[in-house]
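Annotated sample (chain length 248).
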Amino acid sequence: MQVITVTWRNVDAATHQVVGDDGGFASLALKTGDTYSATFDKAGTFKYRDTETKFRGTISVTATPLPVGSVTLATQRQSVVYGSSVTLTGTVSNSQSGEPVVLLAQEAGQPKLVQTAQVDTTGPGGAFSFAVSPTIRTAYQVQWKTASSHMVAIYVAPRVVLHVNSHGVFSTQATSDLSYSGHYVLFQRLNRAGGWYTIRRVVLGSRSYAAFRARLPHGTSRVRIWMTASQAGFGYLAGNSATLVVHR
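Output written by the structure step:
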């Protein structure tokens, strides 16, 4: 309950005195221009009168609910590769353990947040954590009592792999919730200046997979597959494979 202060000011030419019916407050005689204040620290109805006249009044004080507090949410990193997990952490403002915290999520393209099956209970200091594995860009929020955290977005890149067999044939595959049949990826080599340049464009077939050959110079080459954001599709970041070391 907040403390409420009410102030009376005598703007009349006559003298007045404010007295509470329950005896909880009373002013001295108030001459013209004098003021008197009374403080109320609880809800209720408080009647008063002016002893110099027949005037009576009522003060109604309504309880104002205190804020229930707040809850925070943070992530150890803001992007993951498809199929990987990330940990969301946060605390509740009362720093108490045993408080239930609910996780909500909104995937790219969805109109609103929905409650997930994950509910955690706070530990020491009011801390909690959730391990999540988003399969497309997803925004997360937690609720504690009637408080909600700010939203944290986790971005997702397709999982892209690159292999080479003993015959020098390369193979690549890109994986996400989407099919990449007909999409293309870029086969790239690391140059001496530390930059990647494209050797060829590879179109993915069924199962988002392709096998191909590529000419490389004699010696050691470091190569990778790069998938642009436009080819990765809505809700995904650009993705790349691990660097593969090839000896020719």
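Annotation: The longest helix spans residues 229-232.
Annotation: The two ends are 79 Å apart (CA to CA).
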